[in-house]
Amino acid sequence: MNRLNGNAPSRPRIGVLALQGDFAEHIHMLGLIGITAVEVRKVQQLSEIDGLIIPGGESTTIVKLLTRFDFIDGLRSQVESGMALWGTCAGMIVIARELTDPYPTPLGLIDIGVSRNYFGRQVDSFEQELVIKGIEGAPMQAVFIRAPIVNDVGVGVETLASVQNGVGTQAVAVKNGRILATSFHPELTRDTRLHELFVELATEAANDRIRISPDITEGTPSQA
Ligand code: GLN
Question: For 3-212, CATH number?
Answer without folding.
Answer: 3.40.50.880
